[in-house]
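Q: Here's a chain of 625 amino acids. Please give me its 3D structure as C-alpha cells.
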Amino acid sequence: MDKPFDDPTVKEMMAKYGIVHKPGLAAETLADIAPLLADEGIDIERPDNAPDIDAFNSALQRAIARHNFELFTPVGRQYEQSLAVLSEFVTALADHDIDAAQAVLSAVEPEPSDDHPAISHVIGAGLGRLDDWCTDRRLPTKRTVLVPTWSPSSRRVAREILRLAKEHQAFDCLNQLIIGFDGSQTFEGTALAVAAVILAVASSRNVPAADVIAQLLTKDAKAHSAETSEPAFSKTSSNRPQAPRKHPSGHPATRNMTTADRAAIRGFRAWLSGQAEIAAPTVDDEIRLFTDLIKLMGQNEASPHRPSDVEELIDGIIGAEDADQDTAFAVVNTMHDYVMFQLETSQDIVWNDVHATVDSTLELFGPNPLIDAMRASDALDPAERRATFAATKIVTTAPSILRWIGSSRKVTSTGGVLRADIAEVAAMLGISAVGVAKDPSMPLPSFALPDAAPPEVRVMTMRDLPVLWAWWQALDVAELTRLTASRVRPGPAAADWLDDPAAQTEIDDLLISAFVSELLTYGIQQNQYFCDQVFAHTINRLTEIVSPGATDETDATEQTFLAGILEASTTRTLQDLQFMGLVGTDNTGDFTVPPLLRGTVIRGMIMAADLITQLTASDLDEQEE
C-alpha cells in the first residue's frame, strides 16, 4: 500500500499513541532541499534511481543541516524583528494577558514580511539567546525554571529546549527539534522558553519583567551584561499567573472546586437532562463520574475548561497500564458527552479538534483485527510456541552473550559494548563486523540476502548496527542483562531463564517483542529523517503480514522518490527480521510471519508505538517544582 497513513488500522494505532501524519510534508521538505541533495549526488526527480536508505539518510542529514542553518539564522532587520516579537510575547505573559500573547505569535507567518520576521527567524534568534543565557553563571538558569502556562505539548518542547540550552546545545540540536516536533510547537516552545528565563530572572531580582526584557532582549544585549549578582528566587513574587482561589464552602461533592467548575457541572447536568441518549444509565450517574474527573484534573492543575487538558485526561486514562477497560470506556464516553455540550454552548472552535480525538478514541474499544490476531496466536499449542521461540536467532544466541558477560563487562557511556568487543559480540549473531575509529562502512549491507555472505563491515559504535543494537537493548528489556553506567551484568531474569523451563516461554516472548520494538523504532531513536513516515509504512506492511486483510490495500499508486525510499527502508527492516528468524517468505517471495510468532510480533509493534511516546516525553515531562 503506497499511502500507509490512509489505512484505518494504521490510523487507529497512530492515533492511540499520539502520532500525527501531516500529508505532503515529507514531499514538500524534499522539494525544498532538492538543490542541496543534488550537491550530494542525489536526484529526486529520478524515483527509479533511489539510493540505498543508509546512503540517503547520510546525504539528507548533511543537506538539511545546511538548509536549516540558512533558514534559522536571521540577520539585520529580521533579527531585530525576531527579538521584538519575543519581547512583546514575554511582556504579554508578564501582564497575565494570554490572549495578547497568543495574538503576538499568531501574527508571525512562515514567510517573512516587511513588518514581521518568519517563524524560523524567531526560533533561531530565541534558541541562540537561550544558549547564551542558560550557560551564564550570572543568570539563575541553573535552578528550576518554570515554563508559563500554555498548551501541554508546547510546554514540553520548552522544557526540552531549556534542557538543551543548559548544555549550550539548543541551536545545535535544531535539526532534532524540528524532527521531533512540528514547527508550531517548536515556535511556541522557543517563545515559552525565552519567557521562562526572563520571568525567572525578574522574579529572582524582584524587578519588573520589562527591566529584564530591556536588558536581555535587545539587539545589542549580551547575556553577560547582567551586572548584578544573582539573588535567591523570591517565593512571594512571581510574574506567572496564579492558580485560581479555592472555595471551601458549598455542596460536599463539589467542595474545593472553583466557581467555574461548579458552573460547568450545573450546565452539563442541564444539557444532559435534555438529551435523548447519554453515556450513563442516568444523569446523576454521569454527573457523579464527571465530578470525580474534575477533581482528578484539579489535582493535576488541569481544567475541564481547557480543551487541551481534556485531551490529556483522555490520553492519560487510555495510556494507564492498569486501566480497566470498562472504566476507561465510561470515562471516554462521558467526556464525549461533555465535549458535545461544549460544542453546543461554547464559541471555542478548538473543541472540534477534541471531538475528533474523542471519536477516534472511542473507536479503540471496537473490534481490532490486530488484537484478534494476537489472541489467536497466543491460543496455539504452548509447547509449539516455546519451540518456535527457541528456534529464533534472538533466543538461541542469548546463552552465548550471558557466558561472554560472565559476572560483568565494561560498556561505553551510551551502554554499548566497547569498540574492541564489537567483532566478538556481532559474531554471535553471525555478523562480521569490526569497531573502527574512522571511515565506517557506508552503506551497510543487508545480512538477510541469500547471496554470498556480506563483507566485514566497519562501525564506530555498536549502535551503528541496527540488528545488533536492537538485540542488545532487548536483552536489557527482558532483564536477561542489566546495564549500569559503566558495566553490563546478568539481569534478574537470567538465572530463571537458564534453569527454569516454565519461565522460559514468558521471557522469550518478551525478549522477541522487545527486539521487534527496538528495531522498528531504530530510525526514530537515531533521529533519522522522515523516520515517522518510515515507521508508519513499516507498521502498515507488518499489519498486513501478521493479520492479512486487516489493512485496506489498494492498487499501487504513482511511484515517487519518497515512496521508493520508504519501501526500501521497510524492506530492509523486514529483511533484518528475517535474518533473526521472525519473518519468512512464501513461494511467491512475499514476506510472512509464522502463526506461532504473530502474537509476539504484534506485541512488539504495540511496544514500538508505546516506546515512541516514551522517547518524546520521558525527558520532557520534568518536574516543574
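Q: Can you summarize the key feature?
A: Strands lie at 409-410, 433-435, 457-459, 481-483, 487-490, 584-585, 591-592.
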